[in-house]
């Protein structure tokens, strides 16, 4: 299921390492990006074949890491930090607020598949807590007002 | 005040466009590389020794010893791996450094690689740090274009390639042997270290000698070479050369209930009180300080009577806590210690890689008991059980992740952790079961797991 373009990208990754296997994590990133931000089993199998690894091995690696999505996610993947800094400056209230607005619980996706709401562990933005990550964008120093604006903005995209 | 603290790493932090090589070059950029390339291996490592630099990733291991461990005149491949995994809750300084001053890290990598004659450097960046990774990649590309990377750097005959490698979400990958497994395309599980632990210098990635250092450690090579190790060591605590000391400056992440949270560069030995009340502007909403966590989530919390502790490795060590990665988290009187610990235990249980039984089973047990207490079903014997489990994880797990989970509750060797200082809070919750029902503790949610 992976395209020629994906394989070409993987080729440039392989060149960075002394072994093909080392290109596995970056290759999974490329495969995930090419598949609506998740990794179907077939995609993992394709990566395995290309790198000369067993499919079970690749699945074993992929399942170790939380950022490889093993099921479809919404177009906007909200990951709100709730670790011990964000928690005491209102992360749980924010998560409830977002969940209420979108009508979803933690780990769920809206029926129109636009949003997935998840919690995240320390995003490394503790000096600007609470914070969340949406795709590759960080939003920091969040308040409910700010979150409302961000949601409205994302809903239009 | 922060401005009175010498700024060795953050000197040009506020210069607009300092992440661009042209601006960076106008502000002493790559001077240290030029200088280092005229020095031999021994001389550079000696400057690092004189500086007293200790690893900034958490353990505080003397950097020059690691660098010295690489076999001399080694012409086979060997590697520098930069630990940019930054997963310790409370720690955000490496992200700030990479975002704001990417060339400082790239320059530090070039110096470090020259010092150990490594021709390849991998920067392992946690998967969430896409923006910092872009900054670093841009800096690497610019450095190649100007001849600071690639073949025959500045005509010195030294070749060096530098690569960004992205992680994919696993706290455990910050542990150096797990980081190496992950870099090689495996699950991020720790490996046995040679007897000379903590040195993977003989057999690291791809069975080759390897140095793993934190982002800040490597960046600090730049001011050390620019100003000389002895000059760098002029600030700090302890006497250089006479036993353990804390020399130079440290990036800290100040967070939680302070008026001015942020990433700051402080001189080691600055009293915690000064950091919280002057640099941080005091407690938010002028509430009372309840406790602080000095060095990141795995370091035991300390109550206000420790406010006058100098922020350095030795003094914090004597309190029964640790300087760790330099993440000072401040908590006001409204914070419930059992609730905070419940969240933290969920974190460690989720992040345990599963390789060893004490950590895998122990952390989940700690979660179960905390959840029970928070839900109002606590039993009087639970508190001692928590301590017992913690003490059985501590020192018995395969890597230090188990210790990191046990220490916040039961403390380090001095045995003073959250339960020691706030036992009554646990007792009260168990007695009347109040408070806990207010919030259910949802574990980390992920798509499709
Ligand atoms: C569970 C665990 C997580 C760690 N996470 C990090 C991290 O995110 N960044 C880091 O630099 N060191 C981390 N460390 C420490 C590293 O194992 C290692 O000591 C450090 O990278 C060495 O670099 P330094 O000598 O420059 O400090 C972690 C250790 C453990 C046990
Ligand atoms: S605790 Fe949320 S970013 Fe660190």
From TrEMBL, chain A:
SUPFAM superfamilies: Thioredoxin-like (SSF52833)
Residue numbers binding [2Fe-2S] cluster: 81, 86, 122, 126
InterPro entries membership: NuoE-like, NuoE_dom, NuoE_N, Thioredoxin-like_sf
GO MF terms, alphabetically ordered: 2 iron, 2 sulfur cluster binding; metal ion binding; NADH dehydrogenase activity
Signal peptide (UniProt feature, chain positions): none
Cofactor binding notes: Binds 1 [2Fe-2S] cluster.
Cofactor(s) recorded in Swiss-Prot or TrEMBL: [2Fe-2S] cluster
Pfam family name, one: 2Fe-2S_thioredx
Alphabetically ordered keywords of this record: 2Fe-2S, Iron, Iron-sulfur, Metal-binding
Family of this protein: Belongs to the complex I 24 kDa subunit family.
Official protein name in the record: NADH-quinone oxidoreductase subunit E
Organism of this sequence: Capsulimonas corticalis
Gene that this polypeptide is encoded by: nuoE
From TrEMBL, chain B:
GO molecular function: 4 iron, 4 sulfur cluster binding; FMN binding; metal ion binding; NADH dehydrogenase (ubiquinone) activity; quinone binding
Cofactor(s) the protein needs: FMN; [4Fe-4S] cluster
UniProt cross-references to InterPro entries, sorted A to Z: NADH-UbQ_OxRdtase_51kDa_CS, Nuo51_FMN-bd, Nuo51_FMN-bd_sf, Nuop51_4Fe4S-bd, Nuop51_4Fe4S-bd_sf, Soluble_ligand-bd
Keyword Ribonucleoprotein included in the entry's annotation: no
Gene3D superfamilies noted in UniProt: 3.10.20.600, 6.10.250.1450, NADH-ubiquinone oxidoreductase 51kDa subunit, NADH-ubiquinone oxidoreductase 51kDa subunit, iron-sulphur binding domain
Presence of the UniProt keyword DNA damage in the record: no
Catalysis performed (reactions): a quinone + NADH + 5 H(+)(in) = a quinol + NAD(+) + 4 H(+)(out)
Domain NADH-ubiquinone oxidoreductase 51kDa subunit iron-sulphur binding, first and last residues per copy: 338-383
Keywords: 4Fe-4S, Flavoprotein, FMN, Iron, Iron-sulfur, Metal-binding, NAD, Quinone, Translocase
Similarity comment: Belongs to the complex I 51 kDa subunit family.
Name of the protein this chain belongs to: NADH-quinone oxidoreductase subunit F
Lineage: Bacteria, Bacillati, Armatimonadota, Armatimonadia, Capsulimonadales
Name of the encoding gene: nuoF
């Amino acid at each position: 299921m992976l395209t020629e373009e994906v394989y070409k990208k993987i080729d440039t990754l392989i060149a960075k390492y002394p072994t093909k296997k080392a290109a596995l994590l970056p290759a999974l990133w490329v495969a995930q990006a090419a598949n609506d931000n998740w990794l179907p089993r077939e995609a993992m199998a394709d990566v395995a074949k290309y790198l000369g690894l067993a499919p079970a091995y690749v699945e074993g690696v992929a399942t170790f890491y939380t950022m490889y999505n093993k099921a479809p996610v919404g177009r906007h993947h909200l990951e709100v930090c709730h670790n011990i800094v964000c928690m005491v400056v209102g992360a749980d209230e924010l998560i409830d607020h977002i969940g209420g607005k979108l009508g979803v619980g933690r780990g769920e996706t809206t029926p129109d598949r636009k949003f997935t709401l998840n919690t995240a562990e320390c995003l490394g933005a503790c000096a600007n807590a609470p914070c969340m990550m949406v795709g590759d964008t960080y939003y920091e120093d969040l308040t409910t007002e700010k979150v409302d604006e961000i949601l409205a903005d994302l809903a239009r995209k | 005040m922060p401005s009175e603290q010498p700024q060795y790493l953050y000197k040009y932090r506020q210069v607009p466009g300092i992440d661009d090589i042209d601006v960076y070059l106008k502000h002493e950029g790559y001077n240290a590389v030029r200088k280092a390339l005229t020095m031999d291996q021994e001389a550079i490592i000696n400057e690092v020794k004189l500086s007293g630099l200790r690893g900034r990733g958490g353990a505080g291991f003397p950097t020059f010893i690691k660098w010295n461990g690489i076999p001399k005149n080694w012409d086979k491949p060997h590697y520098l791996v930069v630990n940019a995994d930054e997963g310790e809750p409370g720690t955000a300084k490496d992200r700030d450094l990479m975002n704001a001053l990417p060339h400082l890290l790239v320059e530090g990598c070039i110096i470090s690689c020259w010092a150990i004659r490594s021709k390849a450097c991998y920067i392992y960046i946690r998967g969430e740090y896409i923006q910092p990774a872009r900054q670093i990649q841009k800096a690497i590309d610019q450095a190649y274009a100007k001849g600071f990377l690639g073949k025959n750097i500045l005509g010195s005959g030294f070749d060096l390639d530098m690569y960004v490698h992205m992680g994919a979400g696993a706290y455990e990958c910050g542990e150096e042997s797990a980081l190496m497994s992950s870099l090689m395309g495996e699950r991020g599980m720790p490996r046995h270290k040679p007897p000379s632990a903590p040195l993977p210098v003989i057999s690291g990635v791809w069975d080759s000698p390897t140095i793993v250092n934190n982002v800040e450690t490597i960046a600090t090579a730049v001011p050390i070479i620019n100003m000389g190790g002895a000059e760098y060591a002029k600030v700090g605590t302890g006497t250089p050369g006479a036993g353990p000391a804390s020399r130079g400056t440290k990036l800290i992440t100040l967070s939680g209930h302070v008026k001015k949270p942020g990433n700051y560069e402080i001189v080691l030995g600055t009293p915690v009180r000064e950091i919280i009340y002057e640099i941080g502007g005091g407690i938010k909403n002028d509430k009372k300080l309840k406790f602080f966590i000095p060095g990141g989530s795995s370091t035991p919390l300390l109550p206000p009577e420790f406010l006058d502790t100098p922020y350095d490795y030795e003094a914090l060590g004597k309190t029964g806590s640790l300087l760790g990665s330099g993440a000072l988290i401040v908590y006001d009187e409204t914070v419930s210690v059992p609730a905070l610990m419940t969240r933290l235990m969920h974190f460690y249980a989720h992040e345990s890689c599963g390789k060893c039984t004490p950590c895998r089973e122990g952390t989940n047990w700690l979660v179960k008991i905390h959840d029970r207490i928070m839900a109002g079903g606590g039993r009087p014997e639970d508190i001692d059980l928590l301590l017992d489990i913690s003490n059985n994880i501590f020192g018995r797990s395969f890597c230090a992740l188990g210790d990191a989970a046990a220490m916040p509750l039961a403390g380090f060797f001095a045995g003073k952790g959250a339960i020691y200082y706030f036992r009554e809070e646990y007792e009260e919750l168990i007695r009347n079961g109040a408070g806990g029902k207010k919030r259910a503790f949802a574990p980390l949610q992920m798509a499709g797991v």
